[in-house]
Specification:
Blueprint: H1 2-49, E1 57-60, E2 66-70, E3 78-83, E4 86-93, E5 100-103, E6 109-114, E7 117-122, E8 127-133, H2 136-139, H3 147-151, H4 173-184
Antiparallel strand pairs: 1-2, 2-3, 3-4, 4-5, 5-6, 6-7, 7-8
C-alpha cells in the first residue's frame, strides 16, 4: 500500500512539473529574441575597427581572390599570409621539388610557390582555396620572389651558354689540302 501511495505522489509531481516546463519555453523565446539584437549591435563596432587594407604584398588570384604576403620569401623561415581578412603565420617546409612551401598544420593552410604562380590549399578541408596567384612583378613577366624563382634564368639569357673560347691556332697547310682531295675524289 505504501508503494501505491508513493507511486501516485511521484506521478502527480511529474504531471505538475511537466505542465510547468511546458509553460516556461513559451516565455523564453520572447526573452531570447531581444538578447541577439543587443549582441549584434555590440558586434558591429569591432568590425568597423578592422583596417581596410591588409599588410603585405598583394597577390592577385583567379576568380577575384587575393592574398597578401608579408615577409621575404628568399630568406625568412616564417611568412604571414592574409587570407579572407585573417592572418596566418606559415613556416617554411623543406621540399625535394624545388618549389617553396609554407605550411601550418594547426590552421591547415598550405602555400606552394613555383616561379610562375602560387597556390593556396587548406589541407584540413582538402580544398584548393586560391590558384594562379601572382604579384605585380610576376604579372609583368618576372619570376616569383622566392628561392625557386631566383633559380629560374631570365628569358634573354640562354640556359646553356658556352664559355668564351680562346682563339684557335692557325691551321697547317698540309692538313687542309688532304681533306679537300678526299672530298673531290669519286666514290667507287
Amino acid at each position: 500500500m505504501k508503494h501505491l501511495v508513493l507511486a501516485a505522489c511521484i506521478g502527480a509531481m511529474t504531471l505538475t512539473a511537466g505542465a510547468a516546463l511546458a509553460q516556461e519555453p513559451a516565455k523564453k523565446p520572447a526573452a531570447t529574441k531581444k538578447a541577439p539584437a543587443k549582441k549584434s549591435a555590440k558586434k558591429a563596432t569591432p568590425v568597423a575597427e578592422v583596417p581596410a587594407t591588409p599588410n603585405g604584398e598583394k597577390w592577385q588570384c583567379e576568380l577575384g581572390h587575393a592574398i597578401y604576403i608579408s615577409g621575404d620569401m628568399r630568406r625568412d623561415e616564417v611568412i604571414v599570409v592574409n587570407w579572407e581578412a585573417k592572418e596566418y603565420r606559415l613556416p617554411r617546409q623543406a621540399t625535394v621539388t624545388g618549389a617553396d612551401r609554407y605550411f601550418d598544420a594547426r590552421s591547415g593552410l598550405d602555400l606552394v610557390v613555383i616561379p610562375s604562380k602560387a597556390m593556396l590549399f587548406n589541407k584540413n578541408l582538402g580544398q584548393r582555396l586560391a590558384d594562379e596567384c601572382q604579384n605585380a612583378d610576376m604579372q609583368a613577366g618576372g619570376a616569383a620572389p622566392t628561392v625557386a624563382g631566383a633559380l629560374r634564368a631570365p628569358v634573354a639569357t640562354p640556359l646553356l651558354a658556352a664559355p668564351a673560347a680562346a682563339p684557335a691556332p692557325a691551321p697547317q697547310p698540309e692538313a687542309q689540302a688532304q681533306p679537300a682531295t678526299l672530298q673531290a675524289a669519286p666514290k667507287p
